[in-house]
Amino acid sequence: MRNSKEIGDTTESRALSMLVAYGYSVSIPFGDNDRYDLVVDDGETLYRLQCKTAWSNKDRTIRFNTHSQTTKNGTYHKQPYRNDIDAFLVYYPGNEQFYWIDVADATEQKMELRFAAEIDHPSINWAETYEFDGTIPERSRSENATSRSDD
């Protein structure tokens, strides 16, 4: 059975390959101490991404963590990413799909994406809304990230 580090590394490498295939310049922070996994450059803006792997949670729903988990000196710590990243790039192996979720849309602990439901409710996070097709969502462009200045 693979451990969570191996699963995360696989998701991160798939994300890197996919983003490069879509024509983005991607940087990887040196070491494991940064709160983001990748920096994506679209020529105008830099986006700090945290890559996550989703799992099947319930029928027609997937879930992913929106916080980091560490143990230091025997004490368990959780820390949300709210001020440290611009978006989550989530991979679900069940359908081999990536989802781009702005950090402003994410909850503090875990987030669910739903494929189908009997009802339509404003609190449902529809998976299709977040499907990444190679285009960075307009909301990310306007609310998040760091604009580049070409001096």
UniProtKB/TrEMBL annotation:
An MF annotation (GO) of this entry: nucleic acid binding
Which stretches make up the PD(D/E)XK endonuclease domain?
A: 3-132
Q: Could you name the domain of life of the organism this protein comes from?
A: Archaea
Task: Spell out where the chain crosses the membrane.
Answer: none
Q: Which InterPro entries match?
A: PD(D/E)XK_Endonuc, tRNA_endonuc-like_dom_sf
Instruction: Write the protein's name.
Output: PD(D/E)XK endonuclease domain-containing protein
Species of provenance: Haloterrigena gelatinilytica
